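RECORD TYPE: protein structure
NAME: Pseudouridine synthase
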Amino acid sequence: MSEKLQKVLARVGLGSRRYMEEVIAAGRVSINGKIAQVGERIEPTDELRIDGRKVQFQVEDEIRRRVLIYYKPEGEICSRNDPEKRPTVFDHLPQIANDRWVMVGRLDINSTGLLLFTNDGELANRLMHPSNEVEREYAVRVMGEVTPQIRNNMLKGVELEDGPAKFESFSEIGGEGINRWYQVVVKEGRNREVRRIFESQSLKVSRLLRTRYGTVILPRELRTGRWMELDKTDIDNLAKSVELKPRQGTGLFGMAKRRTEKMAEKPLAARRGGYLRQQRRDDEQDQQQQQQRPSGNGNNNNGRKTIGFNKGFKKF
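PREDICTED:
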């Protein structure tokens, strides 16, 4: 069985089909040592390289489509590696044999909630692409009063530095005083978009939790820092929402299925800790030590101890 080259490259997670067509047209892709052409088909036994580097791939019918949902805690970054050695969302994901997890969208270090991971790069690209208008739903705690005028502004659209943005829906869901919770929906995944829409109205977001991405809702039984694998029905619904066909072999089997069923009956405890929490604890401890230290010790900091940013943290 053969497949079109750009489709295979997109599914591996190297970019969208259109971008892969540009890469192929630039002469950066080779099949069995020969420069490839856009639209060329590739066999499972062919050797595929981009910029001279070998790319491992499988044809579509051989790959079981998989999707994980992960409850991101505060303090983890959405990257595979971090020069500052902070924890990442990939640290606690299960290994996947002869494949890799592709992250669908991002959340900033201070945000929490639903993240999707899949081994299907084409699915990931379609879920993230603005043209598909996949809804992202958030629970947001805001400091300040959201007046009817401000609400209308954010629903009609505000101007940000990278273009206009708006909420598709906006509703109040609780809270009291100056801290109130709202549920909002956007159809794009621009950097810090939800926070920036509120900031455009001189309001500050103090908590942000993603509760839904497309057809996938953050389940009540999933605790912070834990992951769960989706079964066939949920994966097929997600794929269908971006016009992808179901794939044979999709779904949970054996131990994986029993693990998910067990988690629904008895959820795992939240994974406590986190970089930001540990940093705050370290800062509080330093401040307490400083208060207990007698003044006039003659150091160059006027009795103050410099607090380092990259302190070690403990994983739980």
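COMMENT: The two ends are 46 Å apart (CA to CA).
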